[in-house]
Specification:
Chain lengths: ~270, ~375
């Protein structure tokens, strides 16, 4: 069932049985789930419309599936995750992945560029207890995802919008613009152009309402690549006009969405 | 137009006081986070005295040399469009009554205050004239735009400082403001003397000028004024121009050119160029509501032909590639705009050049396209 056909089912059932909401955690920092708790003013309304059936961060009471709407935070990074995500999918009518970890692998996807056993031996006293995968991967690589919300963390207004449109059986209006579009709607003088800051806004998916530029900080891409992402052109400009070195470019691209901004071949220095 | 009169700096404060007393909300230039932006002003101390901009493709820098000139900059990133068609505005909201289930809809009306723009340049007056074609003079009128536009009082300023991205002379208006204003100033700062030449072009302008008072320009004053205006024109003419000869046909013939793909290798499809352009007019609407489903709002916001959603028809975007989006933007602005409105959509302000994060310059692109089609003809 897609978002549109939900129109038929959502409205009649909304009155008698409330749809069941579940929130799941995979490899993550909990920040995105907290965005839901952060909806202080709206949380009551959410609880009136949805039966919050599984949300360990908020309540230890969990009820059985199936669930109507599942919000999945975090990436798949252990053998256990591999099995668990399949179970979550089986129990969920709609599955929305929330945040950079769930939709792109997260900061922990830095491991995808290294040998995980090198890290384990440095970090843990008894490496033999650790059972982990070599890579950290997005939920969509393992199961069908009905909708993805980007950001590290997600934007709470976007989350509420998704919940609200779900309840009404209409498609979420989540823009696919660049961060620059919101930056300009906020009438901020571009930090790239006027201050030579290295900003990923032009290649980053909108959603945060240009949060960082509004505080005079260049975007570091936490919403991940936007549609038609031209990483090559932006990095070539940063190399030639702002004298960024190759390691600096790698660092810039690999902060929050390490596995989704694909590094181009940089020009020789 | 009446004869030019002379104002000193104090007269400018009088102007602000007079406009204020007549109920105008005055917007003017001021320095904020390393750029000249527009905001509400009521005192001349708020103006960016001594600040000058340097601009080139993808670059904007401000510096101050301590001179007292109040309008010694060319253009900042913002255009006046933000006041006539705000980047975001609520169109209406609706509420369902919990008991009766009745829905009440309330339209959000523009505030209805009279606005005055201080420091508007020739290219920007030209841009408002172009937007009037879109929002006022067509078969459908945009009431919100009309309400904001109605009592607009324009205090134009002839450019005395020109940057390398300016090419208004190619587009037929500027750098001197010829029409469309209420008052127009030329700022002169020479040999320690600082004054303005002021002209009025409307009844409103003439009456404000009368209330503010003025002096006569001496012959030597007039020579200084003429020099400022002439130097500005020469400076713009020395900049790279946009060759508009046969430009409509050039674009129509080039619709299949491989050139668009070469451009797309550089273009980020980020939409900055359209967002800073003073004549762009596209917007979209979004509906949002609260979780209870009882309150709804419809918002309108600036949109851009560089966005994927912009050309979304059922099932997908018609212009999926960056090449097709860039072609759309430039072809509309420079060519099909003429079919649609009988003139070009570009006023030569150069904002899209300076504020493109990777310095794409439409003047150079048009030239390259010409060369390409010329070679193809051979
Ligand atoms: S500051 Fe960054 S996000 Fe804003 S317009 Fe410039 S490049 Fe885009
Ligand atoms: S501006 Fe960039 S880094 Fe900052 S919150 Fe938005 S997407 Fe994330
Ligand atoms: S196309 Fe560029 S130069 Fe022309 S009016 Fe728009 S921003 Fe100014
Ligand atoms: S384009 Fe012309 S009118 Fe506009 S700021 Fe430059 S010189 Fe002035
Ligand atoms: S021309 Fe420049 S500003 Fe416009 S979309 Fe392309 S990269 Fe962005």
């Amino acid at each position: 069932m897609d978002w549109q056909s939900r129109i038929v089912t959502a409205i009649p059932t909304a009155m008698d049985t409330k749809p069941k909401l579940a929130v799941w955690k995979f490899a993550s920092c909990d920040g995105c789930q907290l965005s839901l708790l952060d909806c202080e003013d709206e949380l009551l309304a959410v609880a009136q419309q949805l039966d919050i059936a599984h949300f360990s961060e908020a309540s230890s009471q969990v009820s059985e599936g199936p669930f109507d709407l599942s919000l999945v935070e975090g990436s798949v990074s252990t053998p256990d995750d591999l099995e668990r995500i399949q179970k979550v999918r089986q129990q969920s009518r709609f599955l929305v992945s929330i945040g950079a970890c769930a939709s792109a692998g997260g900061i922990q996807a830095l491991r995808n560029y290294a040998d995980i056993s090198d890290y384990i031996s440095v970090v843990y006293a008894s490496p033999s207890y650790i059972s982990t995968l070599k890579t950290s991967t997005p939920i969509s690589q393992h199961v069908k995802v009905d909708f993805e919300l980007r950001g590290c963390p997600i934007d709470k207004h976007q989350l509420l919008h998704v919940i609200q449109t779900y309840l009404q059986g209409r498609r979420p209006q989540i823009s696919s613009d660049s961060v620059c579009v919101d930056c300009k709607r906020n009438q901020i003088p571009c930090l790239m152009v006027s201050q030579q800051q290295a900003c990923l806004g032009p290649i980053t998916h909108a959603g945060c309402d240009a949060l960082c530029p509004r505080f005079n900080r260049a975007c570091f891409g936490c919403f991940g690549p936007k549609n038609n992402c031209n990483t090559r052109s932006l990095t070539a400009w940063l190399q030639s006009e702002q004298a960024l070195s190759k390691p600096e470019l790698t660092r810039l691209l690999h902060t929050f969405n390490s596995d989704s901004f694909v590094e181009p071949e940089y020009a020789e220095e | 137009m009446t004869e030019c009169r002379k104002w000193n700096v104090e007269h400018l404060q009088t102007l602000l006081d007079v406009l204020n007393a007549q109920g105008y909300c005055i917007y003017g230039p001021q320095l904020r986070s390393d750029a000249v932006v527009y905001g509400e002003i009521d005192a001349i101390e708020q103006l960016p005295a001594g600040w000058h901009d340097q601009q080139s493709a993808g670059s904007y820098r401000m510096d101050s040399d301590g001179d007292p000139q109040l309008f010694g900059y060319a253009l900042g990133p913002q255009s006046w469009r933000k006041y006539l068609q705000p980047p975001r505005e609520r169109l209406w909201s609706a509420k369902t009554n919990t008991d009766t289930q009745a829905i009440t809809v309330s339209e959000s009306k523009p505030a209805g205050k009279k606005m005055a723009f201080l420091g508007i340049r020739a290219c920007e007056v030209h841009a408002i004239d172009i937007q009037d074609d879109v929002f006022l003079n067509g078969t459908i009128q945009d009431n919100r735009y009309a309400a904001r536009r109605e009592n607009l009082f324009l205090v134009a300023v002839n450019c005395g400082h020109v940057v390398s991205t300016c090419f208004c002379t190619s587009m037929g208006e500027g750098p001197k403001v010829d029409a469309g204003f209420d008052l127009c100033l030329t700022e002169v700062y020479k040999n320690g003397e600082h004054f303005f030449a002021v002209a009025a072009a409307s009844d409103c302008g003439r009456s404000v000028l009368q209330v503010c008072g003025s002096a006569k320009l001496s012959e030597s004053d007039k020579r200084l004024v003429t020099k400022v205006e002439r130097d500005a024109r020469l400076a713009v003419e020395q900049n790279v121009q946009l060759n508009t000869e046969g430009i409509e046909q050039l674009f129509y013939n080039a619709s299949d050119s491989e050139y668009w793909q070469e451009l797309a290798d550089r273009c980020l499809s980020c939409a900055n160029c359209t967002m800073v352009c003073p004549s762009c007019f596209c917007s979209n609407t979004t509906d949002s509501g609260d979780v209870s489903g009882r309150k709804f709002e419809r918002w309108q916001q600036w949109d851009s032909c560089f966005s994927a959603d912009f050309s979304y028809l059922h099932g997908g975007s018609v212009r999926a590639s960056t090449a097709s989006r860039y072609r759309q933007w430039l072809s509309h602005k420079l060519a099909s705009w003429q079919q649609q409105f009988g003139r070009s959509g570009c006023v030569g302000c150069g904002r899209c050049v300076s504020w493109c994060p990777v310095g794409i310059d439409l003047r150079a692109e048009v030239q390259a396209l010409r060369l390409r089609s010329h070679n193809a003809d051979d």
